């Protein structure tokens, strides 16, 4: 088992913005003026070396499942954090975790075909992610402020 899977089993995940995989690879996500940019897939060795204590506790607020997968959404130990995780039901294996420091707590999650739709509605925000189950790096972001 890898570090990401081990920490998941302990109720923790990396606190960087990114998509983390059970095989200890990740795809960094970067906030820009035009939204969120997706980086290149790489090993977690560099971020673990630079920030060995870069972990947060997490808690699930919501879940949804189909025959193959369990999707979880929730928040972290820091205000504003949010995550979506995908678990393979047959062997209880973590597939990936998408973590954003400014997502807010995910309070609704739905599996629609090959996609997960996750919503975080902490006032005044209304953030929605549409995530491909098999290609989470193609995530679509819709971040809004309610007035």
List the helices and strands and how they pair.
Elements: H1 3-9, E1 12-14, E2 18-21, E3 25-32, E4 35-38, E5 42-43, H2 45-50, E6 55-65, E7 69-76, E8 82-88, E9 93-100, E10 108-112, E11 115-120, E12 125-132, E13 140-145
Antiparallel strand pairs: 1-6, 2-3, 2-9, 3-4, 3-5, 6-7, 7-8, 8-9, 10-11, 11-12, 12-13
What are the defining features of this structure?
mainly beta, four-stranded antiparallel β-sheet, 147 residues, nine-stranded antiparallel β-sheet, 13 strands
The helix-and-strand class reads: mainly beta
Distance separating the two termini: 46 Å
Overall number of strands: 13
Uncertain runs are none
Helix content, binned percent: under 10%
Task: Report on the architecture of this protein.
By secondary structure, this protein is mainly beta. The chain has one domain (3-145). Helices cover 9% and strands 54% of the residues. The chain has helices spanning 3-9, 45-50; strands spanning 12-14, 18-21, 25-32, 35-38, 42-43, 55-65, 69-76, 82-88, 93-100, 108-112, 115-120, 125-132, 140-145. A hairpin with a 7-residue loop joins β12 and β13. The longest helix is centred in the N-terminal third of the chain and has 7 residues, at 3-9. The radius of gyration is 14 Å and the shape is globular.
């Amino acid at each position: 088992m890898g570090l990401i899977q081990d920490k998941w089993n302990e109720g923790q995940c990396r606190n960087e913005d990114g998509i983390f995989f059970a095989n200890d690879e990740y795809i960094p996500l970067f906030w820009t003026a035009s939204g969120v940019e997706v980086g290149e897939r790489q090993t977690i060795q560099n971020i673990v070396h630079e920030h060995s204590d870069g972990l947060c506790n997490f808690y699930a607020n919501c879940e949804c499942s189909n025959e193959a997968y369990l999707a979880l959404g929730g928040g972290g130990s820091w205000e504003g954090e949010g995550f979506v995780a995908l678990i393979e039901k047959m062997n209880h294996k973590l597939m990936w975790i998408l973590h954003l420091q400014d997502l807010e707590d995910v309070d609704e999650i739905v599996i629609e075909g090959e996609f997960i739709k996750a919503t975080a509605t902490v006032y005044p925000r209304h953030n929605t992610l549409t995530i491909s189950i098999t290609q989470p790096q193609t995530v679509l972001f819709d971040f809004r402020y309610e007035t």
